Amino acid sequence: MKIISTPLEMQHAALAMKRGGRRIGFVPTMGFLHEGHLSLVKIARHHADVVVLSLFVNPTQFGPGEDLGRYPRDFERDRKLSEAAGVDVLFAPETAAMYAKDASVAVVEENLSRGLCGASRPTHFRGVVTVVSKLFNLCLPDVAVFGEKDAQQIRVIRRLVRDLNFPVEIISGPTIREPDGLAMSSRNVNLSPAERKQALCLRRALDRAEVLQRSGERDAARIRASMVEAVAMEPLATIDYIEIVDDETLEPVARTDRPTLVALAVKFSKTRLIDNAVLKPGT
To answer: Which residues are part of the catalytic machinery?
Structure first.
């Protein structure tokens, strides 16, 4: 496995691979890898000749007072996991190399990013879309793989690729869960034992939505109320949002008669967790 730490070297390496006729699969991460990330590597390997994985805690997608400083980091652990998973190139740049001190250009998505996480984190997707654009320009992937746990993010990235004509195929990988149902996240390590136990309320809330959908309930307000009740049972949990939106437009819906994204974000002290499910008619 080759380790690259500078943007220019990464771009040169990617150009050489492209000239050699090799198809590049890309998995962007902020590190502290878990089985969810490694499942994306497997998907990328299936679709490409070379797999590039990036490790970069992107500061521009964190707002004031958020957990940039607390975000877990362990390069050596990530290196070993990446190598064992069959990653060919590990791209791990420093912040100063990715952003000039006087950087003044950003990429902004103005529709899909407004609600859900974008409502409570108004600068988040500006940072996400900008860094993903930069990473696409440096790693030159033919295919990039993102996890479905970040439901809004993957829809925003698909719109980025469509609207700015990036020659990249976006593939999604399913949410990987712990045995008890909690969605795997690098942030889970920051939960106290009590918070970790109560964090299962996210999965329970989604289970309620799915059960109601299967039973024939289509009123979004009633489904949401049941989800709110499930989370509110846990004293350490603070709801950021629980929303039911159209699966494509991410606009709020009154009924779940068509594919609908049910998404929630819940805070436990300074740790914010997200999860989601898609409700489909007839299920």
So the answer is: 37
